[in-house]
TrEMBL record:
Protein name per Swiss-Prot or TrEMBL: Integrase catalytic domain-containing protein
GO BP terms in the entry: DNA integration
A GO MF label: nucleic acid binding
The Integrase catalytic domain, residue ranges: 5-164
């Protein structure tokens, strides 16, 4: 398993699309979701469609201009994220683009869990508010940003701002005396505090990453395949009129063209067929003679 440990806020950001949802009064049907790998800071943007031009415009105007340009942008495997337009925009901004492989979302566990949390929340919201669900996201984001994250042991707001967000209960009952701080002291202590909590987060992120890598490597086939090896490809398809359980899920043989890294391969069925980029989990050795 390839391991990537981020070391600073908004250095590496993940994005994905959720939807479609019922069309809101503002004409929105989808959500563009973004999350910073280091701080776990979430952003959600309601959008009318999932075209590449819409995604690029929202990312630049709302995310990049607010939080700065990330070094890496990671996305799911989708045509809108792999379009020439988005690639050109990111290239001009100096952003390196990475993506998951099809049918293999495990490398994006952080974002997958976050998406599930949002979808669970939206199911409750959409059930009661069919026309203005997109206007009810900000309060959800407030709660998420102020909640302690399991991986870092800190809140996203604390890692980004060096302080906790003032929540409605604080406005109602006031802040405890031990949380109050004179303005002059706050300015002097902010840099030191950010430095300390960022180091704390790095340690927790490294531990979580190491645990994930250890679990993954136990399951992964360390030997892998070499160029020229023939393999089966797991590619389940639904055919009309046939039970999915009775359909063949493996096809081949394919030939390994390139070993991109430890777990990702480029394969091809025939010399004239299209090459596919596939994760190791979807391959199996081919022992036939044909």
């Amino acid at each position: 398993m390839h391991q990537y440990n981020v070391g600073a806020p908004f250095e590496r950001v993940a994005i994905d699309i959720a939807g479609p949802f019922p069309r809101s009064d503002q004409g929105n049907r989808y959500l563009l979701i973004a999350m910073d790998y280091f701080t776990k800071w979430p952003e959600v943007y309601a959008i009318p469609n999932q075209e590449a031009s819409t995604i690029a415009e929202v990312l630049v105007a709302n995310f990049f201009c607010r939080f700065g340009i990330p070094r890496k942008l990671h996305s799911a495997h989708g045509r809108n994220f792999e379009s020439h337009l988005l690639k050109e925009v990111l290239k001009r901004l100096g952003v390196s683009k990475t993506r998951t492989t099809p049918l293999h979302p495990q490398p994006d566990g952080m974002v997958e869990r976050y998406f599930k949390t949002i979808e669970e929340h939206l199911r409750k919201v959409v059930a009661s508010y069919q026309r203005d669900w997109d206007e009810r996201l900000p309060l959800f984001l407030l709660a998420y940003r102020a909640s302690t994250h399991d991986t870092t042991g800190l809140t996203p707001a604390g890692l980004v701002f060096g302080r906790e967000l003032r929540l409605p209960c604080d406005l109602l009952f006031g802040v405890p005396p031990d949380k109050e701080q004179p303005t002059t002291d706050y300015a002097a202590d902010l840099v030191d505090h950010l430095h300390d909590i960022h180091n704390y987060a790095r340690q927790h992120l490294k531990l979580a990453s190491d645990r994930m890598k250890t679990r993954y490597d136990k399951l992964a086939n360390s030997a892998g395949y070499d160029e020229g090896d023939r393999v089966w490809l797991y590619r389940p398809t639904r055919r009309k009129g046939k039970s999915p359980k009775l359909q063949a899920s493996w096809e081949g043989p394919y030939r390994v063209v390139t070993r991109i890294n430890d777990v990702v391969y480029r394969i091809q069925k025939t010399p004239r067929s299209r090459m596919l980029v596939i994760h190791l989990d979807r391959l199996a050795p081919y022992h036939g003679t044909a």
